[in-house]
Amino acid sequence: MNTTWSHNRLATGMALAIWAALFWFVIFADRTSFYFASRTTWLAPVGAVTLSLAMVGRFLSSRATHPEPLSRRQLRTLAVLVAPAILIMAVPPVTLGSFAVSRRSTAIKGAYVSMTGEDLTKGDLSLLDIFGLSYVGELDKLAPRAGSTSSFTGFVTREAGEGTGEFRLNRFMISCCPGDAVNIQLRIVGAPPGQFGQDDWVRVTGDIYPIGDGVIVDASQVEPVKRPEHPYLNSS
Questions:
Q1: Which domains does the chain have, with CATH numbers?
Q2: How far is CA 71 from CA 11, 74, 78, 102, 104, in A?
Q3: What's this model's pTM, rounded to 2 decimal places?
């Protein structure tokens, strides 16, 4: 029986190959932290292997007993499907920043597993600790620490009406991937005026003051830092 190459199956196999290449690229370029939380990084190797096997299977079955042309509609659909994969591989990794801050909720039900059973009146204090207390309405537990010194790393955003020595320190927390990101934000006062712009990554050291439903940090030191290797915090 005569067989011929199926253009439809070959094109589908190429689309699968591109997506498989993306997952392998993310793994070997050590970019999993930009797309997955620490507890979901297993999705990268699983996706890479699964898509690779699907690609091989599609190519092995790409001979048909009758012509299977690829229509323009199918070609457009495949182009739309592979475009994100090509874009991710072609450009440097980009993290959520100031543009996303105003478009993200600061609280998502179930995104944070409360750690309020721990004694937060002493020891290191993290952004996740502050968010957890804020999430359950228990920031008053930080009252004994008012005036104590802590350090936090995040990126800068500014709001209308703030003084030149003020800005917001932000860090996104993810539960699964950046699609469910939640913003953690502190108000910084006493910063050097005009030295830091939107989206600059900084490390702020200063005295903390829980006020209402937020925390103010009176900065004693603000220093520029590189974007962390793992820019997103994990909810658990």
A1: 4-94 (no CATH), 99-234 (2.40.50.140)
A2: 11, 5, 11, 42, 40
A3: 0.73
